[in-house]
């Protein structure tokens, strides 16, 4: 049951969100393999976020999409303990 808080207030919206998402928010408690954070993913994309302004002016949309796919493959290989160059060969 939701607390008696006006639903249009910030606290009311937060309470409704918490109530609706509770089962997802505590999923990591059900299985010890689940992580409470996503630090691995955040750290993997950090170089691209930092360099984003350097890549802002890609030559074409296709080129930018190709680069994004390549970066994704490289980071996936790293995350799975593979050497990226050998993985892409």
Automatic annotation (TrEMBL):
InterPro entries reported in the protein's UniProt record: IS66_C, Transposase-related, Transposase_IS66_central
Segments forming domain Transposase IS66 central: 5-65
Pfam families listed in its UniProt record: DDE_Tnp_IS66, DDE_Tnp_IS66_C
Domain Transposase IS66 C-terminal: 72-89
Name of this chain's protein: Mobile element protein
Record lineage: unclassified sequences, metagenomes, ecological metagenomes
């Amino acid at each position: 049951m939701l607390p008696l808080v006006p639903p249009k207030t910030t606290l009311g919206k937060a309470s409704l969100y918490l109530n609706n998402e509770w089962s997802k928010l505590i999923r990591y408690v059900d299985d010890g393999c689940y992580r409470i954070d996503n630090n691995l993913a955040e750290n993997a994309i950090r170089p691209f976020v930092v360099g984003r302004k350097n890549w802002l002016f890609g030559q074409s949309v296709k080129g930018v999409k190709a680069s994004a796919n390549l970066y994704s493959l490289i980071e996936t290989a790293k995350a799975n303990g593979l050497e990226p160059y050998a993985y892409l060969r």
